[in-house]
Amino acid sequence: MASSSSTPLHIVDQDNDEFDWEAAVREIDVACAQTTTSSTNYCANNGSNHVINGKIPTYTSSNPRIQETHKKSVPNQSNFAYFASSSRQLTLDRFIGIVPRNSNGHQREKHCNGFLKNKNNNFNSNCQINVGNSGEGQKGQAEDEEENVGFVKIDPEAAKTWIYPVNIPLRDYQLNITRTALFSNTLVALPTGLGKTLIAAVVMYNYFRWFPEGKIVFAAPSRPLVLQQIEACHNVVGIPQEWTIDLTGQTSPTRRADHWRSKRVFFVTPQVLEKDIYSGSCLVKHLVCLVVDEAHRATGNYSYCVAVRELMAVPVQLRVLALTATPGSKQQTIQHVIDNLQISRLEYRSESDPDVIPYVHDRKIELIEVAMGNDAVEINNLILEVIRPYVARLSAIGVLKNRDCQTLSPCDLLNSRDKFREAPPENLPHIKYGEVEGYFGVLITLYHIRKLLSSHGIKPAFEMLAEKLQQGSFARFMSRNEVLLKAKLLMQQSISHGAPSPKLSKLLEVLVDHFKMKDPLESRVIIFSNFRGSVRDIMNALKDIGEFVKATEFVGQTSGKALKGQSQKVQQAVLQKFRAGGYNVIVATSIGEEGLDIMEVDLVICFDANISPLRMIQRMGRTGRKHEGRVVVLACEGSELKGYMRKQANSKAIKKHMRNGGANSFQFHSSPRMIPHVFKPEVQFVELSIEQFVPRVKKVNDDDQPIQSPAYKAKLTDAENDLLSKYFSTTRENTWKPSLIAFPHFQAFPSRVHKVLHSFRTGILIDAMQCLQGLPFSTCSTAVKVEDSASPEPCSASEALVQCNGKIKETSTSGDFPIEDCIREVSLASLEPKEDLRTREDSYALGSQGSQCKNLVHSFLFSSGLISVDDLGTVQVLSVSQFPVKEVLLSKIMTTGRAAPFYHLKQNIACIDASTDVCEERVGNAKDDSMSQIRSSQDDKDCAFKLNSCNASGEKTLGEIILETPIPKPMSDGGESINNSPEDRAPMLFAAEANDDPMDVEFSPRLTNFMESGIVPESPISSSGMPEIQRDDIMVPDLVSTPMVHAQSVVKYLGQNEINVTSSLTNDISAKQMKNSTPASKFRTPTVDECRSPFIKSPDIGFSKDWQLNPGGNSHGVKQRRKFKRLRKHGDLCRVKPQDCKEQTSGPTRNFTSSSVGADDGQNHHHRGAKFISNRAKLFVEDEAEVSLEVMVSSDEEDEQEDNSYEDSFIDDRINPTAKSTQAEESGIDMMAVYRRSLLSQSPLVGVANFSEDFTPSSDVPRNERASTSGSESHLVQKPENGLESTARNSASLHFNLDRVSSDALLSRITTSPKEQKSKMENRKRKLFCKSGFLPVHNLEKEFFIGSVASGHDSMLHEQTDKIQENSKTFLDNDITENRNIFDDDQFYNAIDLDAIEEQAAKLIGFKTDYSKQNQVPIAEPVPVNPSLLGSPSFDLGI
Amino acid sequence: METSFDSDLIGEIFKRIWRRRAAERERNEVTEAPDTEVGVGTPKKSRPTLANAKALKLSSELLRLFVTEAVQRAAMIADAEGASTIEATHLERILPQLLLDF
């Protein structure tokens, strides 16, 4: 209305030829026809309008279009008369072509007048304003035209047709109604279940097509209905979902504004529509269609009315389609709806209409009269008694017309009261007004209670009464009314009595009958009650009825006083469950009546009958939709029944009004034809393809997942999707999460890595896991226990260790067992690289501790044993406790510790050897064990063997380390040393190489861990050595390791001899040296391989410490050598595994023997060593090995073992002092080379004894190395652990034998004078450095040389005799060793060992080459050994 | 450098997580101290966490390494077991150490 459209239109109208005059005339005619009819009725009815109507005719002449707009926009009925008259005039004017300008203003006035009159009767002022505006009417017809069509363009193509979907079987009445609804505002009154929604959807769809930019609104009175209708509409015509949106109060206004802009079809609640129209966010100008569901609500100031009023006020042209099943119970209310919604047509179908009947299912309505209970009757009478005086009083005043208190209803009272308020009787004094009001209030309450009593039972009535008596005016009037109190008491009694109300019992009866006839699982029942209190009563009653009734309540949101309501969520859930069968009975209040598409219900029970027919129809509409249904109405005798009957009669009367489109009963409003007449849409039946409806609400809740998932799923294969669904279900709670604790056993060992190495923290984790899973210290032997005891106390432990050693010595068997245990442990550790590493670490740690004290070293050894204590075959990780110690000591300790473990290993081996037969057998077993076959077979022995093998593996690792170290040696060492070194190196290299592969793989993680833990600092040394060294360098480290082994052996001997303090000292020195060497080796190892690196690192650390400890460069050199020796020993041990271990053990034994001999009885040592060697050789020969020799050796071995252990400790000590990392390495390397050279050259030249001694250790070492090499070989063949070396078993054994022999020889030599050996060692080592204490190193070197020689011999022998066993047996070395063993070591040593060894070494080199050339694995192994021996040259080359 | 993950994707993932975290934090704060002054905390809360391009690139690479390593290690386990496909169980075995390695 506010717009100025009216006046200008005339002019333009005239000027505009495009105006569709014909259409206009037609419309006008229609309008006239309607208005004439309606106006007559209207005028008769409404007096107030008459005045206006009377005025209106005076204002004639206006554009018909304007009239139309006015008609549309003005909701007031009063306009009709005016329009009717004016429109006629206008048509005349049209035809005449005269448009009086003034009329615009007038018309406007009228228009405004009409509109305003609706509200305020404020006529004049608006008229004036409008008149003022009327002058400027230039906008013309174009705008009018535009307005006519709306602000929205029409798609002319689409407008040629209108589409009716035939997806659903066509129903004529729906088609007809739809056709009507498309072209005029229509009120569709169809019984429930006859497809109102389809009509609405089709209309919406066609408007959607016709107006590409138009917006369509579907309003439904509640949110559930909105959601239901959006889906229903979609399923009918399939308006693309991207254009549809549901807007409810849950959507925020800002989002709604966005949606109003971006979407085209809106499903809204009327409240939202009203608000958004007010706020302007609803783009009203683009609205083309408004569908109003449940239109009977459009009365009063309900949002429907307000919204439509606002839309008309804009004005906007739109099609209104109103849907209802029950337009109203009275003609008047229907008229109100028509007015409020600007309806121009009424389409009414009743169930009895011929075109509807085929689609209506039979619906039986039963009225069951229920007699009131006696109590209720009595109470009712009492209440009536209370009521009567008040009614009498009111009727006396004349306020109440009806004197029959029986028939009065609360409604009557309300009406009377309203009337009284509007026009109180004149004769009544004002003072009485309050009294009358009070009477009314009391009466209303009482009647309400009475109604409750009759329709719902005593209990609700009692509650109501009790509540009312609490407060308010009713309490004031009634609290002392005895009759009422009596009634209340009666009610109370009745309730406490528990007698159910007759209605309730009848209801249960009906229900039980129903479920007897129908399947409780399939059938659904709704019970309607108007009163929430009775819903609860019904629920309580249904609880007892039986299993087959699963009842729930369905009540509204607003919570009353006592009873909580249900949120919409709960409501939805209830409906969902009801549909799914979770419930089969719903007890509902009026909320269940309307619209909600509660699935097909078989039975509807109306608990109270006295309700409006409209609601009764809705209730009945819940059933009989798809198949037959049944409605049971429970009515109480008396007032309720009467009321029901009356209302049914009313509804029938209404139907009469509705006949014939209501043309005779109602006034209708003109409505715009949205489609210009140029378009004459023809119906087109189309089969629409409707996409699956995707509920938007769920979308929002699920974060768009259901929509997105198909997108990516489409790109994946089925298998991938299956995999995804296996671990990631759509519901978030069930998403699979990987477990970190699922495989604890896997966490005890470092997993294999790809590119990212394990971190320090992983190491900690592994250690922790190992601790947690740690095998118990099951001490097989007491000695182990002793060791354990010793280990805890490092310093004091030394004595204890010594004692233990002594004990061990004393009880060879017992000692053997512990040793075996240790060995087993070690072996186990070696077997499991991780474990081995740990054990080694532990041992290192122990060694580090021991480094300070020789005794400590022993303790460490013991501790290591403790750690690794395993039962027979079981592989056990070292004890965790040791690890921390290691960690504490870390660098130094690590090196020392490592040396110590090696020593331990060696010692263990020696011990094993000491147990001659056993050892031999064990060795054989060990080989087998290495094969991993024997483990189970032989218990302790096997274990020992395994241990040996483990040790061998550890030695291998050491060897690897040593290999790295060798480079420094060659670098620093002189020719002699070089010569020696090469030999040593060669074996070392072999061992190292052999070791490297397995070791690297196995150790890598640990090594990395070590590196990270702090070993890294040492790495530089390794790096320095690395470049030159590499594998050749590795050879050197092997050599170093051999010296280490020698030193260890010496130490062992010393340890065995305990008595020899000097030896212990030497051992310490050697140990230091060993340490140094070990670090060097460690360093080298890292360079060579990561696996090696960790070891290397640890040794490096040790070296660094050693370095620090060592004041002089000489010491460094010595240390280096020693380190190398250690490394070699380690490597040898590791590589050789069983064989190596044996050899090493023999070596150490020899060394020990030599040292011991030097100190005590060299012969014994030599013998031992020889025996060991022989044993070892035999062992290596193993399968073929001679038991006798082994036995011989075994006896010696026992001693040797003891010696070895001591030696190891000593060696460790030595290592510590020698420790100087880089210098040590280099010097060590040099030293090694020098030693080797010296050994080679000197051994024969210089005091043979010395050399021999030195060599013996060295030889031992070489043996060890060789053993390691051979061990590697043996590993390949014999020892599966070494795998790589396994092929070379025979050769390895030969080498070992040779080594052993050489070592034995060396030992023998050493036996002559261990001190001399030491001195020699020192001389050798310190030829450069000048330190006597380093003799062991010399020895080691010598040993290496010897070993190399021996190896060479071995290799020679091997070459000569392909049969390794035979070779081993036949080998001169073996023989020599045996002889030596048998004979005095000194003699052996003196005899030829050194020279022979050297010669042999030279030969060996050649042989090695040859061997290497030879494809035979054993040979090949020897060959590598030879090369290693030759390696001295190779080292030289490296240098 | 090999092609790494799409840093935009990584960025989106990060943002998603940040958003969720922020929401959780807000919720927690609201529940914990609903009466605390809102004015102080709001600007900080409302500020979204950001990562610049280089950081995202680096993160992408790190994630790529992580994933590759995880897959490779799991593959080794699977291979050792003779399985042709990597199952979750294989991943679980290497996961603890893998997590510690990164």
TrEMBL record, chain A:
Gene3D superfamilies xref list: hef helicase domain, P-loop containing nucleotide triphosphate hydrolases
Gene Ontology MF terms in the entry: 3'-5' DNA helicase activity; ATP binding; four-way junction DNA binding; four-way junction helicase activity; hydrolase activity
UniProt domain Helicase ATP-binding: residue ranges: 177-345
Stretches for region Disordered: 1139-1167, 1253-1288
Location of this chain's protein in the cell: Nucleus
Residues of the Helicase C-terminal domain: 503-674
GO biological process: double-strand break repair via synthesis-dependent strand annealing; interstrand cross-link repair
Keyword entries, A-Z: ATP-binding, DNA damage, DNA repair, DNA-binding, Helicase, Hydrolase, Nucleotide-binding, Nucleus
A Pfam family: ResIII
InterPro entries (UniProt xref): FANCM/Mph1-like_ID (IPR039686), FANCM_DEXDc (IPR044749), Helicase/UvrB_N (IPR006935), Helicase_ATP-bd (IPR014001), Helicase_C-like (IPR001650), P-loop_NTPase (IPR027417)
Entry keyword DNA repair: yes
Annotated GO CC locations: nucleus
Composition bias, Polar residues: 1144-1157, 1253-1275
Family note: Belongs to the DEAD box helicase family. DEAH subfamily. FANCM sub-subfamily.
Name listed for the protein in its UniProt record: DEAD-box ATP-dependent RNA helicase FANCM isoform X2
Native source organism of the sequence: Coffea arabica
UniProtKB/TrEMBL annotation, chain B:
UniProt key word Ribosomal protein: no
Signal peptide feature range: none
GO cellular component: FANCM-MHF complex
Subcellular location: Nucleus
Family assignment from sequence similarity: Belongs to the CENP-X/MHF2 family.
GO molecular function: DNA binding
Name of the protein in its database record: Centromere protein X
UniProt KW keywords: DNA damage, DNA repair, DNA-binding, Nucleus
